[in-house]
Design brief:
Strand content of chain B: over 45%
Low-confidence stretches of chain A: none
Shape of chain B: globular
Number of helices of chain A: 0
Distance between the termini of chain A: 37 Å
Largest sheet of chain A: 7 strands, mixed
Helix content of chain A: under 10%
Order of helices and strands of chain B: EEEEEEEEEEE
Mean pLDDT of chain B: 93
Low-confidence stretches of chain B: none
Number of strands of chain A: 11
Oligomer: heterodimer
Distance between the termini of chain B: 41 Å
Mean pLDDT of chain A: 94
Strand content of chain A: over 45%
Number of strands of chain B: 11
Order of helices and strands of chain A: EEEEEEEEEEE
Radius of gyration of chain A: 13 Å
Amino acid sequence: ETGVTQSPTHLIKTRGQQVTLRCSSQSGHNTVSWYQQALGQGPQFIFQYYREEENGRGNFPPRFSGLQFPNYSSELNVNALELDDSALYLCASSLVGGRADTQYFGPGTRLTVL
Amino acid sequence: AQSVTQLGSHVSVSEGALVLLRCNYSSSVPPYLFWYVQYPNQGLQLLLKYTTGATLVKGINGFEAEFKKSETSFHLTKPSAHMSDAAEYFCAVSGYGGSQGNLIFGKGTKLSVKP
């Protein structure tokens, strides 16, 4: 059974640029959630996708957007990067996205914005 | 609104000593609670979770946690610390309503284990 994978591992961008992060969910999971973890903080929920539809969103501006594909993999896109976007971005997959569901996390993508 | 508070950003114990990491939550609905561990440069791994039923929950690597509704707590314990337990630990509560299925995390507690 393949776990959650993310790419790339690290990324360096400059302010104002755009970035796309990718996530492959665990086999059999149809829900993907994205989190931002700033240095020294706990992860913060960005949004969740269930069967290709956005199924909840945290307190993040519209320049954070996402997609989920028919194979349940997912992308996180961030436009007009700001310095504060520097963080570890975590993807998590779960069976159906319910409250009791366990979320399985990938290793993350470390984004640095200069 | 739901929230999680982890008391102590850094806890240090000696190898073989009891590990106690504190977590208090706030929730207007019956909470579903989770403990995750994060090793350096890695993602989060589930240690244990409470949904319903038995309030003492056993997890992986010898960890357990007890849900105490009257104290709104879900503290994590391990009787005897091992060097490999050194990591950051996060307590989380599951969202509900429009945010169903998302996790609300505390700020984390970094555990150090001294030889």
